[in-house]
Amino acid sequence: MALKTGDLAKLAGVNTQTLRYYERRRLLPRPRRTESGYRLYDDDAVRRIRFIKKAQYLGFTLEEILDLLTLRADPDTPCIEVRDRAVKKIDSVADKIRELQRIKRALTKVAAQCTGRGPVADCPILEVLEAEDDR
User: Do the Cβ atoms of 113 and 125 come closer than 8 Å?
Assistant: First the structure.
């Protein structure tokens, strides 16, 4: 069954601009077109878009998703190839968490210095942000 752009977008839970963007990024193969220029997608396009959205939810970038889709397209690809990418993503997420925790500690320390009273010119938070040192 061939799906027009609007139908595919509705079934996959995305908008039509997202479909065109995925095409430009090579995440979706270029669809065939009718004589009048309408794009026609095959049934696999819905599964592919859902795959992309789930991978994005898990933190994969579009470039990483393209890599996963490429692996998925070759039935001889060993599963360890996909696992390696997942483990790499886990490590990246752990690094981001550590950085966010560092930011939270710094913000908590700065916010604790402010009583919330007085003019903005005397705000200790702004003073810290304007200071020349990196602390």
Answer: yes
